[in-house]
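Reference record
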Amino acid sequence: MELEILYQDEYIVAVNKPPGLLVHRSMIDRNETQFAMQIVRDQIGQLVYTVHRLDKPTSGVLLFALSSDVARTLSEAFANNTIQKQYLAVVRGYCQKELVIDYPLKEKLDKIADKKAKKDKDAQLAVTHSELIDCFELPYAVGRYSSARASLLKLMPKTGRKHQLRRHMAHIRHPIFGDTTHGDGKQNRFIREVFGFKGLALTAISLRLTHPVSGELLDIQAPLDPRFSSLLTSWGWQPEQFEELRSNIAQWQI
């Protein structure tokens, strides 16, 4: 297995992570045998260092450092929220055109991986910017509603809490399709059975950062997840709308 390389130089490498792939080994998924970290290491023939993570079901831009010093610099940048992350998500319902979700989140601990972690921490600051790209009304009855509504959003987390985007969207009653932990089971079944969309409708579409060595501004973009392309096409999107989306990604700012 090889991953699409989006950017590479002697200091960093960015790849396009497919949904369903873990970034590195985890006690939570002991039966998994493939991990992005090892795949990229073997693919480029050198050690790579994780500096951030994407949840297993999330696709898109994943960045690695190629030395421990660069890894330290990038990890600090992610911790200080100076790296701009932009996602696309498909959620239940009609969303507002623009929204700032400022809702502190308590750290969610895993029973296995975090069994030694402190369990009584206060909720931490968590802020997400949301912008509506398009909304859809679908002629299918789901639950007690005669039709299904959905929105395509741009999500920009200003903080980096665990499952922040998924938890924030659930908090405002617009859960991301395919989210089996925080989402709506009926809507998840609907989008899977009617439109064949499997997994979580969340993809990291771009990463904007200052290069840790050269100081150059990098804007690393992933191609649109094929699952999104297929879904939006089935909902009536035309080729020019995909082109407009792609041209707008580079202009997105917080």
